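Supplementary Methods. Inverse-folding protocol.

Structures were first reduced to a discrete structure-token string of length 377. This string, shown here, constituted the complete conditioning input.
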């Protein structure tokens, strides 16, 4: 099995080669660098029209991204029993895996995605990662994710305990990520995901956002998690937040302040280019965890271009009423000092509306999470 580090390098090399490769026409007229990628266009059209319809980086994009991580992280460099990575096991064995505490509310993603997986012939693992990549392209600020096709679907579930939990300490989280092949820098990069989305406090409920801009892939998340928390729900993996309407995970709060990760975290504040490029690389690596990329085909050219985030929108700011004096800085490197404060009175961030398609038979304890999928072999 290839190491994940090698996989990442190979993915990036493959992607850059693809840009120079001659393109061929699919029967439907779309141009691709490999005809195997033509199979993705009907899937793309279906999910663009029906799954992400009217989704401006909202619930469908958030849910498809989270499940892509929870599927991929079922993998270990040392424990073969931890699963085979980005292998679709989270849906193929949903009745088991969705009963794990860490997978609470992944049922939303199952209800959303299962009908589409059943209607198309690509494998479950490929669908999960493809939907996440396409969902990301709804989010202003994301760089177009690469996509490789050809994952081998799981033959067994991942066990409980592979997905980090919000109440765990930094040592435990970093150890789990390292065991899956990810460095602290890659974890901090991947957590840009929490710049979009939030927590669902009840089944099929609206989400409490992690930051004040949950539909923009911007650096506000890294800034706002560093503000002194004074408000909101505490317990069960949540700590006080600084902005009404948002929820801060204990794990994000600790990682932002721990000396092993605080400078990596702080470096993203008001640095959109760093956030976007480091996430793009770490996400490409995450998408192929446990898979042999030599057997996969580069279909990056099928992924649409995400909307551009303007320079003005990429400017980080302190929420109304807050300033540099509210930052709890652990990293000894200089903090960006010239950030503006958004004018006006303190705001309450509205909840993230629930996508009705996330409601369905699959329950949060894993019951009734069954569907007939065509699996790849
Ligand atoms: C230390 C590692 C991590 C922990 C402890 C963690 C924990 C959580 C928790 C507790 C939620 C709320 C789920 C809910 O109850 O609705 C959440 C949401 C989310 N997570 Fe993570 N996460 C981690 C890393 C990641 C990574 C690496 C990704 C993607 C690459 C990711 C993507 C997301 C997304 C997109 C959401 C929002 C889902 C939605 O709004 O529907 N997370 N995470």
């Amino acid at each position: 099995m290839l190491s994940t580090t090698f996989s990442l390098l190979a993915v990036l090399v493959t992607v850059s080669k693809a840009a120079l490769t001659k393109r061929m026409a699919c029967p439907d007229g779309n141009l691709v660098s490999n005809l195997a990628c033509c199979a993705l266009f009907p899937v793309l059209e279906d999910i663009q029209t029906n799954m992400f319809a009217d989704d401006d980086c909202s619930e469908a994009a958030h849910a498809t991204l989270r499940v892509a991580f929870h599927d991929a992280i079922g993998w270990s460099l040392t424990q073969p029993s931890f699963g085979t990575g980005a292998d679709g096991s989270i849906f193929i064995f949903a009745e088991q895996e969705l009963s794990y505490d860490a997978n609470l509310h992944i049922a939303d993603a199952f209800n959303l995605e299962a009908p589409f997986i059943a209607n198309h012939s690509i494998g479950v693992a490929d669908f999960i990662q493809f939907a996440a990549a396409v969902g990301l392209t709804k989010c202003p600020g994301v760089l177009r994710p690469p996509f490789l096709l050809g994952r081998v679907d799981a033959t067994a579930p991942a066990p409980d305990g592979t997905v980090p939990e919000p109440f765990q300490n930094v040592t435990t989280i970093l150890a789990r990520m390292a065991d899956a092949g990810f460095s602290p820098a890659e974890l901090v990069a991947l957590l840009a995901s929490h710049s979009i989305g939030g927590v669902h406090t009840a089944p099929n409920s609206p989400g409490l956002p992690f930051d004040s801009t949950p539909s923009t892939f911007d650096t506000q998340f890294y800034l706002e998690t560093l503000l002194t928390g004074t408000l909101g729900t505490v317990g069960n993996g949540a700590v006080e937040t600084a902005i009404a309407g948002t929820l801060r995970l204990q794990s994000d709060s600790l990682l932002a302040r721990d000396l092993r990760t605080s400078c990596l975290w702080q470096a993203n504040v008001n640095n959109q280019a760093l956030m976007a490029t480091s996430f793009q690389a770490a996400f490409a690596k995450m998408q192929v965890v446990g898979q042999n990329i030599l057997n996969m085909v580069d279909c990056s050219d099928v992924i649409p271009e995400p909307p551009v985030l303007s320079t003005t929108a990429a400017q980080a700011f302190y929420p109304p009423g807050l300033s540099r004096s509210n930052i709890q800085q652990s990293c000894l490197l200089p903090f960006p000092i010239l950030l503006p404060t958004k004018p006006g009175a303190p705001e309450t961030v509205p909840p993230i509306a629930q996508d009705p398609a996330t409601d369905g038979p699959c329950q949060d304890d894993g019951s009734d999470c069954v569907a007939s999928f065509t699996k790849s072999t």
